[in-house]
Amino acid sequence: MSKTYAGNFFEDFRVGQTLAHATPRTITEGDMALYVALTGSRFPLHCAAPAAQSVGFERQTVDDLLAFHVAFGKTVADVSFNAVANLGYADVRFLKTVYPGDTLHSESTVIGLKQNSSGANGNVYVRSDAFNQFGDRVLTWARWVMVHKRDAAAPAPEPVVPQLPAVVSVADLPVPMELDGGDYDTALTRSPYLWEDYAAGERIDHVNGMTVDESDHTLATKLYQNNARLHFEEHLMRTSRFGRRLMYGGHVISLVRALSFNGLANAVRIAAINGGLHCNPSFAGDTFYAWSEVLACWELPGRRDLGALRLRTLGVKNLETEKLAGAKVTVDGRETYHENVVLDLDYTVLMPRRGA
Amino acid sequence: MSKTYAGNFFEDFRVGQTLAHATPRTITEGDMALYVALTGSRFPLHCAAPAAQSVGFERQTVDDLLAFHVAFGKTVADVSFNAVANLGYADVRFLKTVYPGDTLHSESTVIGLKQNSSGANGNVYVRSDAFNQFGDRVLTWARWVMVHKRDAAAPAPEPVVPQLPAVVSVADLPVPMELDGGDYDTALTRSPYLWEDYAAGERIDHVNGMTVDESDHTLATKLYQNNARLHFEEHLMRTSRFGRRLMYGGHVISLVRALSFNGLANAVRIAAINGGLHCNPSFAGDTFYAWSEVLACWELPGRRDLGALRLRTLGVKNLETEKLAGAKVTVDGRETYHENVVLDLDYTVLMPRRGA
Amino acid sequence: MSKTYAGNFFEDFRVGQTLAHATPRTITEGDMALYVALTGSRFPLHCAAPAAQSVGFERQTVDDLLAFHVAFGKTVADVSFNAVANLGYADVRFLKTVYPGDTLHSESTVIGLKQNSSGANGNVYVRSDAFNQFGDRVLTWARWVMVHKRDAAAPAPEPVVPQLPAVVSVADLPVPMELDGGDYDTALTRSPYLWEDYAAGERIDHVNGMTVDESDHTLATKLYQNNARLHFEEHLMRTSRFGRRLMYGGHVISLVRALSFNGLANAVRIAAINGGLHCNPSFAGDTFYAWSEVLACWELPGRRDLGALRLRTLGVKNLETEKLAGAKVTVDGRETYHENVVLDLDYTVLMPRRGA
Fold first, then answer.
1. pLDDT in tens, A135-145
2. Which chain A residue has its CA at the smallest distance from B33's CA?
3. Which end of chain C is more exposed for a tag (fewer CB within 10 A), N or C?
């Protein structure tokens, strides 16, 4: 029997099955420096120990998305090695602060299966969790991917499609106990805008853009130990319909979050990702821009120091966001994403409030 | 009002105005490893803890230019986001040793303003300072940039052009108290040449070259959280007169310093940059070479263990330095930089002296 | 006399001569994070502090090949700056565990010299050793390189060709005292295969491939402070027979080892490299695949917890390994390496054994 691992195919999954993923990883200051170099991120709690300490953290905190990508990367070998497409995320919650020196490992449970009408593949729904070295759950998320069947003739399983929340409700939002927004000083970011200054319906064009080259996205994806072949094998991908390597969609999420600093500088922490969709593929050479809409402004129960903003951020490639009328266009009577829109992300951030 | 930040235009500056810059940054071993990977630097006090300790430092010290780029990067959003060109540096002094774990923040004061005759832009002169977490000033520098006006019809301010020293004098050179050149062992670099071995007028061709690709300069510049658009947005720059992304000039300074190890290996510390000029733009794919002239050899008051060398180092692209007759050529009766010369740097380094 | 260093030529070497190499280097968590980003390596003892501690190490250990490349990089300026080709390695032994924070320096002794019949160059054989900050020898290796003569008319030295072992014998294999394979948990890698599961003659195709871009191999090689010009100077290499920069062969060794995780996940440590040959040059844009053969399965004297596997791993570029009939082909009656085979590596790894 082969000792190598070619990943699971659709018919290898069973609802209720648990997958424990390989290679725990200690996240260090080295990973954090690389994350800054790869994204240009400037959110203060991840850049400076004194900034993190000034609002109650022990020390510098690991960027929410760096922790997510490391935890997510571990699931790829077991869940999406044979994926046709990563279809979506839901109910992503950032439960606990990750500090440099913490070691993460991940586990997944299959929560749904549905063969597609073609019979060639099916959708696999998983709930994944990441834990630190103390056994605390630090991250949880659901995602669904379309996975090839090994054998198209294999029988279809009973379809199970899980109910996933469209949004992480205020009651379920993780708000770190350590974080005291009352001590937050806008001098950290030089942006004066706090939670009270945002209103539902407001749109923010994040101005700057970022071009990604092959080494950028492949270094990021290797850093996360995500080993999906389509990001790394030019030789293989030349014969694919894309003709080249595909960028890890999570790198686009990171870029868009980093760009959103200009306009949302005091969104110091991501609490949840309500949903995310990679609308179009991204490739080396693309320049990414971002554009946000405030979907809702929520007070947090029992907290006068922090509020939450539910945001929709679009990632757009190779087009100034002001030239984009909307995320979608109508083609042949059918509504579809504009070809330059690569990411449609619905997420919730925490932002300090103005003192009483 | 827009929450995003599109930087200051010429008419937004006032002489005497103070700008406190965003996002303090803790420099870590991760940043230092990246600095080596991005430049190939081999100066020993930044590479090895025991080397730094052998001459009196607590531990490994952060490369002078890494600290400078991080401190400088913070000023870009407020000073040079709308720059036409970075015109020059003067009176750059490396005042205090920066250690991994130190957190830097930066402030600038406008010290001069002069509208250009075209009326479309003007020169802004700033003095910038970087401080560590103890409030110690670790770096200071002056620079001037040409900045676009938002409105060409806006009235010109009273011109103020500051007097800046052509050279940081010996009396003003920062010499670290911790550094004891008497304990320096040339086994660290395997170069036997110490301060006494150099003479004014001597020329040194640094032999090696270094090609820079897009990911190299953009990773470096993102690491420094310098967000000037022209380094990062291929989509934007395709329609510029360059047709492509421009390399951050500071990366060229770092490369040239790293290349100068071959010939100046025991120049263990930069004390000052007297002046610097980016003579021609640099782009991905360029191969950089370096060539130095010793301008002066200075004794340091009260120090028998260390001397200073004032150097002029040229950065040259895509041309062997031996093929370069001089930095300048005469074109149509006008003296101008040779098109392959990208950097003309006048700076002062510290070098151990031979024991008595 | 020139203060710059253009390396040694063939006639500069003498048998018995000792070369102490420049710039000691502290290996940090920053270097380790970069190593993961550059190779995608997932071997657990280098990725996670608790994983290393679970088998007896103080903390996370530095990847064997990262330590090797750093130690090797130091020798380049003195040994192979003027090399025509790196001909081979032998008797590479990984003697002691390297931890983050350890500082390495290297020394070499010339153990053989043989001028080639052309008279234009000759083979130089060196034994190199790397030491940590306590003076412990952590690595030792022999290699031979073909080096240009400065002056073709210089007289040939008496030929001395050292006897080098074809394989590091079991008795000479370094087995770390700290490492207790009895405590090893395959949950770390999710691969159930331990030493007993492998058999001599077994072949393993490592499935995944990895494309390398210019920034990847040059960042890696700069990280190792290896300053061989042919890896870095596009301007110089355009006029070479390759027409472009050549990839550092050691980077290919690292990639191939990282790829071998899929099939050899529990090969937790490299004990020795018996021999290595860079069969064909590698360039940016190449996609690397790997294919291993188990040459021997050795018990280790006095150890019931660990065994050794002697492996032959081929690095193959731009060709699926299943399309490769063998490493060699016959061209005009002469056996030679297949043009897509870039590395032929014979090495010995340690792997935990099943409990009694």
1. 999 999 999 99
2. A30
3. N
